[in-house]
Amino acid sequence: MGSRSRGRHLLLLLLLLHLLSLHSSLLVPWAAVSAAGGGGSGDPYVGVTIGTAVTNLLSPSDLAEFLRAQRITHVRLYDADPRMLSALASSGARAIVGVPNDELLALGSSPATASAWVARRVLPYAGSNSSTPGLIAAIAVGDEVPTALPSALPVLLPAIQSLAAALAAANLSSIPVSTPLPFSVVLDPFPPSQAFFNQSLAKSFILPLLSHLANTSAPLMLNLYPYYSMMQSNGVIPLDNALFKPLPPSLEMVDPNTLLHYTNVFDAMLDAVHVAVKNLNATGGGGGPVPVLVTETGWPSYGDRRAEPYATRDNADAYNSNLIKHVTDKPGTPMRPGAQASVYIYELFNEDLRPGPVSEANWGLFHGNGTPVYLLHVSGAGGFLANDTTDRTFCIASDDADEKAVQAAMDWACGPGRTDCTAIQPGQGCYEPNDVRSHASFAFDSYYQSQGKAAGSCYFQGVGMVTTTDPSEYIPPQHCHFLLIADAFRMSQTTAGHDSCIFPGSKLLSNVTKSDGANTTTAQTSDAEGSAIWRLRTGRETGFLFILRWLLSLSMVLITTNSNFWT
User: Would you say residue 309 lies in a domain?
Assistant: First the structure.
């Protein structure tokens, strides 16, 4: 690059320094969002699992902010990634960390390896010198090993024992160590009173495991899916019974041995586990039963129409919404009223990269871009999830819709549909990012809100979709860098009071009466605001700080290199 190019870069740096002095009064830190408590003192809670087979998975820091924004305080990870744990330290969440199946042999055959694993994966985040001693809630060793990797079964219990011993040596015996088992280890689960563990595993593995769990006050971890039980029942289990929907007493499941009525499959499966454990005479540390922790449960929102007809959004919504209410209401089971197990919903994001049946990629509550897959109906259920109510919905352009169809729908909304599209005209607050989908999303939501969110008002010939994520707070990741540059330029041309883009249905809108009696619309801070991706539109001050850092770093790279960066 010649002197002329270097001069332009120096000029850019000087311009940025000028902007810094001009806007220095705006540089204020983001307010931290408090995370809701997870129900301490043994209270049951609802958590989520986080798989990583997701296209463009959020960075660990953005994921931590997303969890905090959604008020999710318990997560299950399938490994112990230091980057993820470091990021979660600021989220207020507690995490079950996992040991992958392919690490079992090393940990189960060498106590020294287990001690090293604890030192590397646990102590930095849970030790006495850690700033977040409560981050790690438990360790899940392997996952469904009896069926997923039966050859590793002989080393599974030794791995659990070695890790527990290493934690005890580090004064961390309060962190329980267990292993998630598949429900298939329980045979003849209905009626629950007749259930028993697979005899090939009962004495050789499950009884020694339960004895260890009892001695260390650790829970029996189980992956429990009423969806699969119903699918495999050949019509014996009613769909409504699997979805926690009420049935007439005549249709309820009744255990003929105990005469207990079961209003849902989930409780029947839990009681089957309780009976199977009792039949092995395994008790907890205080002489009571070994507690059960449901480390996975959920319902797919989409599947093959012929092979998986019950994998629908409505059914997934019904199951997970009712599950959350069930757990937070703390009814327990018919056999153990009041003793409600905590659960982890499988899973946070659709893992679109997972192989297998169509449903395998469709268990998530959210798409990879942070928009909900469906609307949960859990208002008042302990504050779990910040966007869990249909009272706050928006209409946006579908990500996978044809762009020409989106353009045609926007033209209709801004024309015959009589939607006010002024805000997406050049120079207006919602003009950037200047692309069809962003403009259409504003137009669609304007029409949707003007119609009172009536059924069909977000159809737009199939290119519209309803979401509970506020578009004013969310920016698709592909637009983030563009908006940073666009906002930097616009801010250098306008005053600090330039309006941000606020969608018509946004909860960020409030009518405020000025002292002169005029009404204006202002943005308010939401308790669900978090990371840069979700706050760029709503935080002009923060946006500028982020922009400045990004551009300054870019300028320094350009100034100190002679490479032809732009070509």
Answer: yes
In a domain, 483, yes or no: no
Domain that holds residue 428: 394-467
β-strands 74-77, 94-99 pairing: parallel
- Of 65, 103, 144, 473, which residue is the catalytic one? 144
Q: What is the overall mean pLDDT for the chain?
A: 78
**What's the token pair of residue 196?**
């028993």
What pTM was computed for the model? 0.67
d(CA 196, CA 277): 8
Domain match, 316 and 438 both: no
Residue 149: CB atoms within 10 A of its CB come to 17
Residues 326 and 415 in one domain: no
Local confidence band at 400 (pLDDT 50, 70, 90 cut-offs): confident
Domain count within the chain:
2
For residue 444, pLDDT beyond 90: yes
Query: Does pLDDT of 480 surpass 70?
Result: no
Single out the catalytic residue among 65, 296, 473, 529. Answer: 296
Residue 73 or 539, more confident: 73
Same-domain pairing of 114 and 228: yes
144 belongs to the catalytic site: yes
Q: Which residues, 6 or more positions from 380, have their beta carbon under 8 angstroms from its beta carbon? A: none
- Does residue 103 have an active-site annotation? no
CATH number at residue 350: 3.20.20.80
Distance of CA 407 to CAs 281, 440, 444, 519, Å?
A: 67, 7, 11, 33
CA distance 64 to 70: 10
